[in-house]
Amino acid sequence: MQILNKNKTLVLHLSVLIWILLASILLFACSSQTYTSAQTDLTPMKTQGDETPVGDLIPLPTPSGSVLPSQQPVALVVTHEGVSIAVTWVYADSARVGIEYRIQGIKVPDGYHLYCPVSAASLKDDAGKEYEKYIWPPAEGPSENFEIQCRQTENGDEYIVTQNYYGVTAGHNQSLGLTLSIDLGGFGIYTKNGVMKEFPANGPFVFHFDVPIIGSLTLDSKITQSKNGMTVTLNRLAINPTLTNAYLCISYDNHKGWYPDITLTWEGKIYQADETATARMDVYHKTFPTFMSQFTTERCYRYSFFVPYQINPSVPSSQQMSITINKMTINAMDALSQDDCAATRKKVQRSYPELNFSCNIDTSDPQGLAAGLNIDNLPLGMDRSTAYGIIEEDFKSIVEGPFIFTVNVP
Q: 5, 71, 78, 103: which has the fewest C-beta neighbours closer than 10 Å?
């Protein structure tokens, strides 16, 4: 009896491909990053074996709403055609310029979805230097020096946008004069059924402000740990008031699907990475044909955590922030082969001798995503749903951690 469970095939065996395609669209609208080291104040400790590395952060960011005044009056809020943008945080250190702003008054027609209203954002300094410019829809792939993340509040009444420019400043205790220009709309929005409507353009919204170049809330040096044949490198940790981004690369001699279990610990609380803001960076910096090539043995990720973080420089306290990969699950059903199928069948039949299955694999797909399971024989009293659950679980294996990266944050 050979029955192909189509729902299982669609959800489980094409899930990685669907995730990649959807997330890549979101990435062009929300993020990009680089792993090139920039000058920082940090001297991370080198570690051997299971020792936990610790790096020091020296933060003195500009608190929300207190941008230093320039020679021209500072406009922290600009309103145009019923829409207001408020710059709520500006920060600059030797490796990064970070800006956060909130957009209110956006009206989206019923039935249409707007992920992010920003269509263009440019930043210049008083010396005339123009930083990375963001344009949506993009004309090319994501930049390696700039990222933009956009999210809508739960009640839907405003959008919070964070922009980070990496490797763009130098020196300390200097003031950086900046001009930020933001344009909204001017592109199509869609319903679930694919009906398009033009979202009207609005802008530019222009802000002028000075920000001191200060210590660092950007760890831009590599810290590496190895264990159980797996190597994890923390390339960057960028802390914002509401969002912390951790950039890690993982190396392991395996071409299957990887699912790291990662958490952030801060002020005694454990935070899970936000799925919608997290990105697999090695995939996004490549073109579509690469999606259909074999999974690599080194993969890089940006994990985003919505962690509340505010600094009071007058309080000389020190706390630790930890990024932990507790374990990594490997799923052989991603990049499935007949050898994987045979090995898992033996594993399953050690506990359920009468449970027999086979695998349908599209050999033209090097990632093995277009694959399905055939239940050939069921043990007495076992239904197909239970059988699929047992089989799918036995396709998985675990690389145990933990891999812990700790930084001291004042």
A: 71
